[in-house]
Amino acid sequence: MQEMVHNPELLRTYRERARALVEQMTLHEKVSQMLHGAAAIERLGIPAYNWWNEALHGVARAGTATVFPQAIAMAAAFDPDMMEQVGDAISTEGRAKYNMQRARGDRDIFKGLTFWSPNINIFRDPRWGRGHETLGEDPWLTGQLGKRFVQGLQGHDPKYMKLAACAKHYAVHSGPEDLRHSFNAEVSQQDLWETYLPAFRTLVKEAKVEAVMGAYNRTNGEPCNGSKTLLTDILREKWGFQGHVTSDCWAIKDFHEGHMVTEGPVESVALAVNSGCDVNCGNLFVYLEEAVEKGLVTEEAITEAVVRLYTTRMKLGMFDPEEDVPFNKIPYDVVDSAAMRQLNREVAEKTLVLLKNRDGILPLDKSKLKCVGVIGPNANNRKALVGNYEGTASRYVTVLEGIQDYLGDDVRVMYSEGCHLYLDRFSNIAQADDRFAEARAVCDESDVVILCLGLDAGLEGEEGDKGNQFASGDKPNIQLPGRQQALLELALDSGKPVVVVLVTGSALAVNTADERADAVLLAMYPGAQGGAAVARALFGEVSPQGKLPITFYRSDEELPAFTDYSMKGRTYRYMEREALYPFGYGLSYTRFLLGPAAVSSRTIAGAGVDVTLTVENAGAMAGTETVQVYVKAQRPGTPNAQLKALAKIALRPGERGTVTLHLPLEAFALCGEDGTAAVEEGEYALYVGESQPDARSAVLTGSAPQKLTVSADRRWVTED
């Protein structure tokens, strides 16, 4: 049986039912359904519904739920299967909470089935405060992970959607946060189609995502929520999008207050609806009745918007008999269950990235330790576990708590915060560095020091986030904040082995840690079970398997201007300098040997190319390797080698397995200056290995990817 999202007959039935219901509404009633808080229409038996719900890494803002690692952390797993598993778990809890709340008459905000996730913007600049909401800096990886996450959220039932997902923020958005209400992101057609749109295309055309959210900014002069180019020409006409479009929150008023493209609210709402925006997160769409009276928008356009919205509600089973919708039977006790907590820890373990491991100091052998020192502002910081757009966990396990739980009474654990996360002292009546003496004492007493540094969502996030230290949400630089650098040097100068655990949602210039620390483990924001996962990795219960979904730069100086949306010099695909830690890089406790790679054809054809190789675990510990394939067009003026395929393989010591990676024709396509995607005639290098083919990765891993060559003997245009 066909899945609902691919069944045109069923979709047609839902649209017809939606239209029949909407045509019974007055203009006032229809407009009331286009606000995020849609009013009840009692005479038609329609209950109130709130379109605004969040599920970036778990059901958010609606009480207790499983808090998975932040999106950027999950991206580090390089694991599409895991993303769908997480999406399915979130949708199970989302349905369970919806069923519970609906039964008790609670139809408030954050308690519906239309979830505004995932965020698939490209993390082009490490200073962007919302980058940790994304799936990294690579368009292909973002698309693949986002697609499977959406499929997990929306489900595979032949008749009903489990939840409705939303691809945001469309399009060309990645800061600066404090300018977003007036900012015009100017981007070439080449960058638009090669970098900023591919993930959206993947989610629309392949995942059949139900909703798309417009960004706050303008793109090439048009406000995104009122852009005919983005919403009509590309989204609906070129890509055939059948779902609904929502504005970002209160973004419609930016048309006249920030972007200055309309005279006032009546013109703004007309522009939004005429361009294809169906839901106003906010309250400005109340002006639509006046816009109809003035002839700025037709009632027919409003009707079509509401039909799209009610088609979504029909797909979710909101107007069908209770017993017909299988998801109505999901009980509340699945929320925050033991199985969910176990999955959460396993996901967190997959996201950890080992950046340095001098002389194999990790994993630590607890039988050889008498005292472990745990130091740093993120050692016991719950906020650093979760990032933003988070739910509420029933228990949070910090890194300190994870280590304490793991070691129990066998090994003494001594703790010091060491320094404040971003200030120079804890008490304003104390002297600066008021925890340094304590940190030195812990170092002196310890056999090994676990130093937990980084950021939390109070230092990077969305503009206006409550409690955000930097009001805009963006970071002013990529240095360790406050006195963390001095604390790092204090620990390193102690003469004790130092393992740095970085808890952060974005890249930091941790050059000193790279040069002097014994090991560096990147935990990102690892979720409510993150401390348990970190402890299990530190002591060898699991081997790190994560790969970097972003580039770690050496300094701010090599970054282009934040407001420059050209991709020149940005991300691994276009950067010219050497990275501190490159995209795609990550070490393991075991050693993998990759056999000779073979291609199915040396000539690129419409069916693409397959790459096959064996992988052997030649180490002493079970582990998982991520085989990566990068493609580089062998002609001047083209991007660096780009990730175009991956395969994960779990192997026991001495075990060998075979992986086959498929490169479709589109994997070889690049965009011209007009944005047209094509595979040009000529040679293409394929790099197959455990990292990208840059010199820095080769130094860090001790090996370089294999290089194969294929060619195209004709030009293939691959655009839609």
Describe this structure in words.
This protein has 720 residues and is of the alpha/beta class. It folds into 3 domains: 319 residues, Alpha-Beta Barrel (TIM Barrel), CATH 3.20.20; 210 residues, 3-Layer(aba) Sandwich (Rossmann fold); 126 residues, Sandwich (Immunoglobulin-like). The protein is 28% helix and 17% strand. It is built from 21 helices and 25 strands. Strands 9-14-13-12-10-11 form a 6-stranded mixed sheet, sandwiched between helices. Strands 15, 16, 17 and 20 form a 4-stranded antiparallel sheet that branches. Strand 12, helix 17 and strand 13 form a beta-alpha-beta unit. Helix 5 runs parallel beside helix 7 and helix 15 crosses helix 19. The chain is globular. The protein starts with 7 loop residues before the first helix and ends with a strand.
The outline comes out as: globular
Mean pLDDT: 97
The overall number of domains is 3
Structural class: alpha/beta
Briefly characterize the structure:
The chain has 720 residues and is an alpha/beta fold.
Write the layout of secondary structure elements.
Blueprint: H1 8-22, H2 27-32, E1 37-38, E2 49-50, H3 71-75, H4 80-103, H5 139-154, E3 166-170, E4 184-185, H6 189-196, H7 198-205, E5 211-214, E6 218-219, E7 222-223, H8 228-238, E8 244-246, H9 254-257, H10 265-275, H11 288-293, H12 299-315, H13 338-351, E9 353-357, E10 371-375, H14 383-386, H15 399-407, E11 412-416, H16 436-445, E12 448-454, H17 484-493, E13 498-503, H18 511-516, E14 519-522, H19 530-538, H20 571-574, E15 592-594, E16 598-599, E17 609-617, E18 623-633, E19 642-651, E20 656-663, E21 670-671, E22 677-679, E23 682-689, H21 695-701, E24 706-712, E25 716-717
Parallel strand pairs: 3-5, 4-6, 5-8, 10-11, 10-12, 12-13, 13-14
Antiparallel strand pairs: 1-2, 6-7, 9-14, 15-17, 16-17, 17-20, 18-19, 18-23, 21-22, 22-25, 23-24
